[in-house]
């Protein structure tokens, strides 16, 4: 559904790129300073708009990858080769450059640190981005809510936030990986798509009534949602966010 720009929370703001972190060969995290940013919840996203010299504009939505931090936000962007926005943000956009942002957007696919219920996060590829914001928000708030993450990715080199996720166990987050095409040395599971056994083993029992967040490509999200329902999870506690091939 199209959203019109309105005053206040959804007005466009001029942001400045303060820092860049390389995540994978095709993805980078953009740390932006946004004067007047109103804050956000883990799981929300922001719109980014580029304007060419001739006045042509293009905009895309990107998930926020870190919890609220004053007027600073983080977006992790993956390059889409035929995209209008992501190639610029990956290959051209430099520290000190400016871009327009609008948000935060979304109020359903969010996690609040005050919620003590167990949380199950299931990500496919770059679907890890809003879920990483939830993991970071948990740590920043000192929450003791039980967290489990099941992360499906094609190869080890395409893993986002690898070092941080491997260290997440130190803060009480249980992390499991599924590699669909190539596995790291010594990994016990053969390459393959995520299945019911993975969700059952790495997730919470339905009787625990966890809050489930699933994010990734449409086919992945639909398949995982069906698995959760088949395992007895309450559909009202399964929240999904999906993305398509836009850049």
From TrEMBL:
InterPro entries named in the record: Cbr1-like_FAD-bd_dom (IPR008333), FAD-bd_FR_type (IPR017927), FNR_nucleotide-bd (IPR039261), MRET (IPR050415), OxRdtase_FAD/NAD-bd (IPR001433), Riboflavin_synthase-like_b-brl (IPR017938)
4Fe-4S among keywords: no
UniProt KW keywords: 2Fe-2S, Iron, Iron-sulfur, Metal-binding
Required cofactor names: FAD
Xref: SUPFAM superfamilies: Ferredoxin reductase-like, C-terminal NADP-linked domain, Riboflavin synthase domain-like
FAD-binding FR-type domain span: 10-111
The keyword Transcription regulation is assigned to this record: no
GO MF term set: 2 iron, 2 sulfur cluster binding; oxidoreductase activity
Identification of the protein by name: Oxidoreductase
Organism of this sequence: Amycolatopsis alkalitolerans
């Amino acid at each position: 559904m199209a959203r019109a720009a309105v005053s206040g929370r959804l007005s466009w703001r001029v942001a400045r790129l303060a820092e860049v972190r390389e995540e994978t060969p095709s993805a980078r995290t953009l740390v932006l300073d946004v004067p007047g940013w109103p804050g956000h919840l883990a799981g929300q996203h922001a719109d980014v708009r580029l304007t060419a010299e001739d006045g042509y504009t293009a905009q895309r939505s990107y998930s926020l990858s870190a919890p609220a931090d004053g007027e600073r936000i983080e977006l992790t962007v993956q390059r889409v080769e035929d995209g209008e926005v992501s190639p610029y943000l990956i290959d051209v956009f430099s520290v000190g450059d400016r871009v327009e942002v609008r948000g935060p957007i979304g109020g359903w696919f969010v996690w609040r640190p005050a919620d003590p219920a167990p949380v199950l996060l299931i990500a496919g590829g770059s679907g890890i981005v809003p879920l990483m914001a939830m993991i970071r928000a948990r740590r920043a708030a000192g929450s003791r809510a039980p967290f489990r993450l099941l992360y499906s990715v094609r190869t080890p080199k395409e893993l986002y936030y690898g070092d941080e996720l491997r260290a997440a166990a130190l803060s009480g987050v249980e992390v499991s990986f599924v590699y669909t095409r190539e596995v790291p040395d010594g990994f016990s599971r053969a390459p393959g798509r995520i299945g019911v056994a993975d969700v059952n083993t790495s997730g919470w029992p339905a009787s625990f009534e966890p809050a489930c967040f699933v994010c990734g490509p449409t086919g992945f999200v639909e398949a995982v949602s069906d698995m959760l329902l088949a395992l007895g999870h309450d559909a009202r506690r399964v929240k999904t966010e999906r993305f398509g091939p836009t850049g």
